[in-house]
Design brief:
Oligomer: single chain
Helix content: 25-40%
Structural class: alpha/beta
Largest sheet: 10 strands, mixed
Shape: globular
Strand content: 15-25%
Number of domains: 2
Distance between the termini: 26 Å
Order of helices and strands: EHEHHEHEHEEEHEHEHEHEEHHEEH
CATH topology of the largest domain: Isopropylmalate Dehydrogenase
Number of strands: 14
Bound molecules: 3-isopropylmalic acid, magnesium ion
Strand order of the largest sheet: 2-1-3-12-11-4-5-10-8-9
Radius of gyration: 20 Å
CATH superfamily of the largest domain: Isopropylmalate Dehydrogenase
């Protein structure tokens, strides 16, 4: 094992197919740029339940702790939907995020000019779009206690969750957002529901305090319902968006769709020291699994993000992004981004084309 080691988790559904292409690209840049990276495969999600009875086995967690980065495809599928809640595939994903303290989730929504016509919005509204959503990933209602489904005295069942954020959690994610904004257009929009929820009232207060340390960054605040609307009305008003776990989950899917396909978007989940887990924003798409048609580009672009953020290999990261631009220029399209007149290709052909372009 090198000191630049990666754990690869292919997961479920289309995961193994798209990861095979991600791995090809990783191998290609590793030799081209002499990066000295090494990697191993482990199980997470449904495949881990089948093999070990739990979605995040200890061997996977130990390997992920020792590695510098984790590359994940996707987890979950109908096969495991009916099993007991606490060991569903998604719980494995939440647990690895939490155990590795990956509190900062970066989800860029960038529109490739070649794909402007794949967006459901008018080209002039989305042309040049470049938003970065910074989602808090290890707190909020996803992890708050108490949680569960209980039976009341009258026999009726009641489901409940707790949305909770401490000041320190808000502060550290706010710093990440402001620091990233300093490298971009120096605008942060913090999303809350401070008119109703106390937890986000504190969120707003703390982000405002942190903002004073970044006088060059323009900070604004927006209620989440308005933000959902503004994202489709005039998305280019945003530069960096910072928000809590649940709002970030929802808004990042919405922002993804502005770009034409969620199949294009990578993400990074980082801890305090830039160790990270990198994964496409989309899910395991069980409906198209095994058919060889899934778009591997979000996974391939996740490899680029990994090289940039964890390994500081900007040139190699850029090379992957440029290669993806080239295959789009060649009008190669998986079905999710296909428009008339372009060339429809499968998962493997797309991966091969990226390697060739490298
Ligand atoms: C995401 C996904 C996950 C989440 C699910 C699969 C648990 O939707 O990464 O956005 O809600 O965080
Ligand atoms: Mg989501």
């Amino acid at each position: 094992m090198s000191n630049k080691h990666i754990v690869i988790l292919s997961g479920d559904g289309i995961g193994p197919e798209i990861m095979a292409e991600g791995e090809k690209v990783l191998a290609a840049v590793n030799s081209k740029f002499k990066l000295g990276l090494s990697w191993e495969h482990q199980l997470l999600g449904g495949c881990a339940i089948d093999a070990h009875g739990v979605p995040l086995p200890d061997v996977t967690l130990d390997a992920a702790r020792k590695a510098q980065a984790v590359l994940l495809a996707a987890v979950g599928g109908p096969k495991w939907d009916a099993i007991e809640r606490s060991i569903r595939p998604e719980r494995g994903l939440l647990k690895i995020r939490s155990e590795l303290n990956l509190f900062a989730n970066l989800r860029p929504a960038i529109l490739y000019p070649q794909l402007a016509s794949a967006s459901s919005l008018k080209p002039e509204i989305v042309a040049g779009l470049d938003i970065l959503i910074v989602r808090e990933l290890t707190g909020g209602i996803y992890f708050g206690q108490p949680r569960g489904v209980r039976t009341l005295e009258n026999g009726e069942r009641q489901g409940y969750n707790t949305d909770v954020y401490s000041e320190s959690e808000i502060r550290r994610i706010a710093h990440v957002a402001f620091q990233l904004a300093m490298q971009r257009n120096r605008k942060v929009c913090s999303i809350d529901k401070a008119n109703v929820l106390e937890v986000t009232e504190l969120w707003k207060e703390v982000t405002t305090e942190v903002g004073k340390e970044y006088p060059e960054v323009q900070l604004s605040h927006m209620y989440v319902d308005n933000a959902a609307m503004q994202l489709v009305r005039n998305p280019k008003q945003f530069d960096v968006i910072v928000t809590g776990n649940l709002f970030g989950d929802i808004l990042s899917d919405e922002a993804a769709m502005l770009t034409g396909s969620i199949g294009m978007l990578p993400s990074a989940s980082l801890d305090q020291s830039k160790k990270g887990m990198y994964e496409p924003c989309h899910g395991s798409a069980p409906d198209i699994a095994g058919k060889g048609v899934a778009n591997p580009l979000a996974t391939i672009l996740s490899v680029a993000m990994m090289l940039r953020y964890t390994f500081n290999e900007e040139a190699a990261a850029r090379a992957i992004e440029v290669a993806v631009g080239k295959v789009l220029d060649q009008e190669l399209r998986t079905p999710d981004i296909y428009t008339e007149g372009t060339k429809k290709v499968g998962t493997k052909e797309m991966g091969d084309a990226v390697v060739a372009a490298l």
